[in-house]
Amino acid sequence: MLIAHISDFHIFTETSETSLVRPDIIPVVRRIIDDVAAFRPAVDAVMLTGDLADGGTMADYATVRELLKPLPMPFFAVPGNHDKREAFRAAFADLFPFEDGRFALYETEFRGIRILGFDTLTEPGPGGALCRERLAWIERKLSQPWEGATILLMHHAPYLTGIRFLDGIGLASGRRELGEIVARYKGELRILAGHIHRPSQCCWNGALVTIAGSAAFKIELDLHPDHGSLEPPQADEPYAYFIHHVDVSGDVAVHPRYVRLPEPGKGISHA
Ligand SMILES: [Fe+2]
Questions:
Q1: Which of 70, 89, 100, 223 is the least crowded, having the fewest Cβ atoms under 10 Å away?
Q2: What are the chain's domains?
Q3: Residue 230 DSSP label
Q4: How is 49-73 classified by DSSP, letter by letter?
Q5: How many angstroms separate the alpha carbon of residue 194 from the centre of ligand 1?
Q6: Does residue 267 surpass a pLDDT of 90?
């Protein structure tokens, strides 16, 4: 089975929320989607880990849905901090079985894989948090045994990447508690995240975690411990999304799939 993991499109139709999103992000995402759709052997499912929009208007989500249309396979998504939770829920209510309540949480299944859509947002603001209600939800879900793999989708990374600026606008609470819940889970669990805008992987409390990069803008690998308040500069690096190859033996290999993109234009000004 092949699973594509893509993150942080930051699609905007009129005004972008962040300054760094390349202005041609719509054709860029079209090219990435075409690459996923054309990959052979065919990708079975696509996982999108937040910041689908950069502002989160209904027009943004109409554009996102239009861009995803060429995908012949199912996709699953969670919101990021540049989405708007309510608009996101409304835009995808026909696809993801959101539970009642104030968060965007859902459980679904795809060919024997349990998919948990987890909501890490603290609106408004760039950071994330896991409150008692959401921790109880994930604990309840992971206390129910599942024969196959479970994929947990969340925008904010569960582990500290060492990129201090991004870690500083990551999960402000609930990280340790989530780690304990994950460590207790005995089945196969993979966690897919975004937010960092560069690819990263970690074995965290026994689970494989992958963070997919972003085509909207890429940040330099800044691991300086004193750079917590210093936003890393943009990186001039190739773009890749991830393809997870799940072998019949159960082995999971994570491959970067490079997509050649046009030179980004100059960043557009802050909204
Ligand atoms: Fe993002």
A1: 100
A2: 2-221+230-259 (3.60.21.10)
A3: S
A4: ES--BSS--HHHHHHHHHHHTT--S
A5: 7
A6: no
